[in-house]
Design brief:
Layout lengths: L1 E8 L5 E7 L8 E6 L4 E6 L4 E3 L6 E2 L13 H9 L20 E2 L3 E5 L1 H4 L8 H10 L8 H17 L5 H7 E5 L5 E5 L21 E5 L20 H4 L6 H9 L3 H4 L14 H6 L10
Length: 289
């Protein structure tokens, strides 16, 4: 029977009405069903713990730390979407604190919010997309320093007419693991870093992530839906090109200021038509699961 209902206003100003039905379980647990305007979620609530009954095809790989509870809510997701992080057709999964970044699904792909905070837009610049395609690591496995270096390579290539690519990256950096299957770019011994001032305190970046439907974004079928568990040799995947050293010398010839990472929103690439996105905000808002 219906015992009570609670009207609740979420951060995204959607009204959720929760109807709790109590049904005796063999072990004295209770079965609850919560019904909202946008989704139906089922949960088993026992006396000892809460166990989600998935309404999607997620598989928990159990690789990343469970300290990374999502702190990126519906308002944050909607704000990024309206600011053009994804094409306006993109379907984002509503905030769910029970879904972690190492949950994989053939339907949904997980993105960290960090690259979008730099001003990048999906589809990412060529050097960014190619790194993940060639190595097979997923976007959530790249630590912020990886995104900063790739972001600055792309900016310098565009502004200075250079052609720094993965071959040059692999010549100077190792792509190494850093606990919990996260990857970072580390300068090789006897090599000089190409991008300067890449160390920053990024705060709670691990908990700022969202899920997007594969089939709602360009080339979504190519996005990795699994996490790489073992380290590998980056330079074996991306052999050094004959002219890599020449390209690197041209990059190193730039001033330290030109080679130093900094955040500057005045040069945003792949920026979509924001007005068009906002006009579709109701049509393309957070999708029901």
């Amino acid at each position: 029977m219906i015992s009570f209902f609670i009207p609740y206003s979420s951060p995204s100003s959607l009204i959720y009405l929760y109807y709790f039905l109590s049904i005796n379980d063999i072990e004295g647990s209770y079965f609850y069903v919560s019904i909202s305007f946008s989704m139906v979620r089922k949960m088993v609530v026992s006396r000892k713990s809460i166990l989600p009954l998935p309404d999607d095809d997620f598989i928990n790989q159990g690789i990343l730390s469970y300290e990374e509870t999502c702190s990126f809510g519906d308002d944050d997701i909607e704000s990024r979407r309206l600011n053009g992080a994804f094409p306006f057709e993109a379907i984002c999964r509503p905030f769910d604190p029970l879904i972690f970044p190492d949950f994989v699904s053939p339907t949904w792909v997980c993105f960290l919010e960090y690259p979008f905070s730099l001003g990048l837009r999906y589809r990412f610049p060529g050097i960014v997309s190619k790194l993940f395609r060639v190595t097979g690591i997923s976007y959530i496995q790249a630590m912020p320093i990886v995104q900063r270096i790739l972001y600055w390579f792309d900016r310098v290539n565009q502004s200075k007419g250079l052609d720094i690519g993965l071959s040059e990256l692999a010549y100077v950096y190792d792509l190494t693991t850093f606990g919990n299957s996260r990857f970072l770019l580390k300068v090789k011994t006897h090599r000089s870093p190409l991008v300067m001032k890449t160390k920053h305190n990024d705060g709670a970046w691990k908990g700022r992530y969202l899920f997007v439907r594969h089939d709602s974004v360009p080339n979504g079928d190519l996005l990795s839906d699994a996490l790489v568990k073992k380290a590998f040799k980056f330079e074996e995947l991306v052999p050094v090109a004959e002219d890599s050293e020449e390209r690197i010398e041209k990059f190193l010839a730039l001033s330290e200021v030109e080679r130093s990472f900094r955040f500057d929103q005045t040069i945003l690439r792949h920026r979509p038509h924001i007005d068009r996105i906002q006009s579709h905000s109701l049509q393309c808002s957070l999708h029901s699961c």
